[in-house]
């Protein structure tokens, strides 16, 4: 499913528009604070990109006193699992890194095309195997040390040579042969074969003078928190992590020396809530200015609230169903709980035909999205609509499984072609997402229609 972004912005005394992102969010912020949030999101490369003109005009009419500290307070349901960029995997962790670190390139708010960030320009050779990046001069890390091409080369080479480091960023370097800083502002990357990802290397650039003190073993336990040894969360991004309390809050202060201009707010604070009801109540009470990752039903309920205005915008995110076909050790020993049928492309094709994506959009997203046809959403310039997209067709799904030898049993459940394992799957959803849980309920019904039991 391609998703629409639904955000709730305040009316009258609180106003604003925040576009971008796949989540349904709610905002209630001071007018000046909203302007600052716009600068924050564009600078940090987070999911939201852009501020409504009308909101900006209104904001200039009601600014707070110059000496009043303006903190953009964000309510979230998901905690940061690890502040170490090589260890964390949650979306919350990536958003924290987007505030703290810079990447070589960013995304244009209009169409998400690549735009310069730390790399102010780049070029590729005619054969596509050599990429040369010109690194912006005058950039400094939060501790005042200069960021140079050496830090860029160090970051990429650490990923190329490491194991833990590849967890999050291995796919970015899979076709990179070597990375070299030829001078303070030039990085040259040699490739094994051409790849289109070289303009979208979303890798946080780390300070060599700090991370070189963390060896291959220590990186597994290094927290990257401000009180770590060596000092953690030192980047070149628009905000600096000041305090982190797991399960409670994360506070970031503005980087007044940021190369792209100091943020228009003094800081950002992520506050953790156990559930959406508590977060929405905090929003209504003025304890936060922004409520993140709301399900469609919660968002819809806020649309009529006083001082809250709901607006939707298009975003590049998508929901997807993943398959666990099993795994094995290097010696071939099978591990995990994957089902062997999911290794068969015909089974996966049949499942695709069995899922009514339009119904999911209507029933789980309240119509705020569109059925996806490829893994690249339409907002990206690289998107290409398939000539023959896969459609909802349970009859075709059953035909495919019949021809592939998955015989339907008297109990309505198919078995493997060799008559062994029945097609009994386990479906997992996010416990803190009603959208995810509702999706699973629909999937169970559709899979049952084609002889797959997924209620285990």
Q: How many E strands?
A: 17
Please give the count of helices: 12
The CATH class designation of the largest domain is Alpha Beta
Low-confidence stretches: 2-24, 28-64
- Looking at CATH, the homologous superfamily of the largest domain is Periplasmic binding protein-like II
Structural commentary:
- With 456 residues, the protein is an alpha+beta fold.
- The protein has three domains: 2-99 and 236-311, Periplasmic binding protein-like II (D-Maltodextrin-Binding Protein, domain 2, 3-Layer(aba) Sandwich), CATH 3.40.190; 106-211, Alpha-Beta Complex (Dipeptide-binding Protein, domain 1), CATH 3.90.76.10; 327-356 and 392-448, no CATH class.
- Helix content is 25%, strand content 20%.
- The protein has twelve helices and 17 strands.
- It has helices at residues 31-44, 53-59, 91-100, 149-161, 166-173, 208-211, 276-284, 296-302, 345-354, 357-364, 394-403, 434-448; strands at residues 2-9, 24-27, 71-76, 105-107, 114-116, 119-124, 130-135, 176-183, 186-191, 239-245, 249-254, 267-272, 290-294, 309-318, 327-328, 334-335, 369-370.
- The strands form four sheets. Strands 1, 2, 3, 10, 11, 12, 13, 14 and 17 form a nine-stranded mixed beta sheet that branches. A four-stranded antiparallel beta sheet has the order 6-7-9-8, with helices on one face.
- Helix 1 packs across helix 2 (53-59) and helix 9 (345-354) runs antiparallel to helix 11 (394-403).
- Mean pLDDT is 83; it is low at 2-24 and 28-64.
